[in-house]
Amino acid sequence: MKINNTSALHTYLKEKGLEYTEATVKQYWTEYRRKWQNQKRKEQKTYTIFCSKQEQAVFTKAAINHSLSITTLIKQSSLAYLKQQFLQIDSATISEIKQTLTLMYSSVIHTLDEERISQSQAIALLQKIESIEQTILLHIESPKLQS
């Protein structure tokens, strides 16, 4: 197998005076992962928690509802709690809500074009839809904290 003369693997083999073999490639990747892990540990702190089966079920359900991994959910929800904020709904759900509101708006316009409702009724409906949209988006982006 041919290797790129400018690759980190090639440089490693050259510095160590090693031939390109399956064992030396394995050795390179082992050392690379070890260095990467050590660097990551210097930059970031990890924590281990233990959960009961009931707690795990709660985390699993919430992670599925928010379309997050359990570790991401724990991190984001902990930070949100400390900042007195809420987790955001996943972007796919927000997009679906916005699309539904747009379809409602389009339906009113289409009904007006077919002259099934008057212009004043259409304007009133469109204003109500816009008001509902603003309220929904406000609650999605910054829900009020319950005391």
Tell me what the structure shows:
The protein is an all-alpha fold. The protein folds into three domains: 8-43, no CATH class; 53-82; 91-141. Helices cover 70% and strands 0% of the residues. It is built from six helices and no strands. The protein has helices at 8-16, 22-43, 53-65, 70-82, 91-113, 119-141. It is elongated and about 85 Å long. The mean pLDDT is 85.
Notable characteristics:
mainly alpha; 3 domains; 6 helices; 70% helix; elongated
Q: What structural class is derived from the secondary structure elements?
A: mainly alpha
**How many strands, what sense, and barrel or not for the largest sheet?**
none
Q: What does the average pLDDT come to?
A: 85
* Terminal Cα span: 66 Å
Q: Could you give the order of the helices and strands? A: HHHHHH
Helix content range = over 70%
Q: How many domains comprise the coordinates? A: 3
- Please tally the helical runs, counting DSSP H or I stretches of 4 or more residues: 6
For this structure, the quaternary state is single chain
Unreliable stretches covering 5 or more consecutive residues: none
Spatial shape: elongated
Rounded radius of gyration (Å): 28 Å
Number of strands: 0
Strand content: under 5%
